[in-house]
Amino acid sequence: MKQPESMAKKIQQRLVLVGLVSVALTALGAALLFYRAFAAQVDAGLVRTARAVAAAYTASGGDGLAALADFSQMPEFSGEIAGEAGGQNAGQSSVTGNRLRLTLIDATGEVLYDSTGKTGLENHASRPEVAAALANGSGSDTRRSDTMGFETHYYALLLGDGNVLRLADETQDVWSAYNKVLPLLVLGALLVLAVAMALAWQLTRSLVRPITEMAAHLDSIEADVPYIELEPLARTVQSDRKLQQDNEAMRREFTANVSHELKTPLTSISGYAELIENGMAKPSDVPEFAGRVRREAARMIALVTDILQLSELDGLHGGSGAAGPHEQEAPEQLPVDLAALVKELAARMTMNARKAYVTLQYKAAPATVLGSRDLLAELATNLCDNAIRYNRPGGHVQMECGTAPDGTAWLSVQDNGIGIPQEAQGRVFERFYRVDKSRSKATGGTGLGLAIVKHIALLHGARIDLKSQVGTGTTIRVVFPKV
Ligand code: ADP
What we know:
The protein contains 10 helices and 12 strands.
């Protein structure tokens, strides 16, 4: 058997996992949004500064380089920043960050001035922002800096004299910005984790508690199901329990009935034996007493035979019947010729009928049923036996079988005997139910005949129709499913 998992544990684990993933995704999303807003601000700042510098350059009236040099003295521009690759001093630049750099480039891409003081810089015509400014009047670009974790934003503006003014601003890139706050993030995540775990524990407890409480009152489990999802389970449990209780009640009743039925003949057997034993019976009475003992014993044998039969049927059906537990077996599934069966049975029952002054006839049309021949013979015998026993001298019994137009086979036993009162018709198939107990006993009945019939019909998927009227007679018809 598979070892069951702990539901509470599983829910907790999943909740914590969901919490962690949410924290990670939120942190990542927030960082990206923050970075984009930050980059946009840097770019906007560059544009504004470039316009101001350009205005000063143009206003200087031909001495633009001097104006640029003035700007370079301002704190925002002074000091070195990590420049782009290719400069003489590239690689030596210190990581100052947020230092603006100012470059003047002519229409051919030659660098005329650079605020870092670097000279001999390579041709800048191919730089995307410069190329764009030469073509369209302005251009921008962002490139990875030489310095790890930094990137440089560029903005280039075409000036009135055909030169290009370029501004650069170096900022930390998103990952290094992220790295800085990482310890804080981890701490936050841990905090969130702790809170999530506490919440998950609380939540799981409140989720699972009603389920464990369900087990405490299984009999009314359907009345207070905590979750809709558990309704099918509750329904099954409750109906199973009901079935179990009904079966238990049936089993107890059956046992009581059997004991009672067996006790009566045993008491009289024991009584007659005692009379003979004590010599209280006259020798001339002994044969008669012996006859009574034999008849009582025969009744007991009939009873035990019927009980065994029922118990076997219970086993076949797999149901929990009144008799002990049996291996569940499937009943036979062979084609049975009902017509042949009816003929054979009629021949066998004729003597019984004659003893009761009853005529027995049959009408056997072709009919085939899938099932067990022995059980079907038992069913027909019981019906025929009842039709003879609950009859009157001069009565008549008719056994018939055939196939209906829709292809269903049927078997019927009709008598013009004493009939069954309306109110008893629903109960005659119950175990040990008899309309007239003394008549049943006098004719050797056990009270189990129709219960066996019902059971066999059930095993064959057949339906039983009973029509009866007191004083007129009874017809019992068994309709089998289509083959
Ligand atoms: P039993 O062994 O007593 O005949 P059954 O289970 O065969 O038990 O039948 C139950 C009761 O149904 C009988 O006791 C009898 O009262 C009634 N019954 C069955 N078949 C007929 C019939 N053909 N005509 C009248 N009553 C019947």
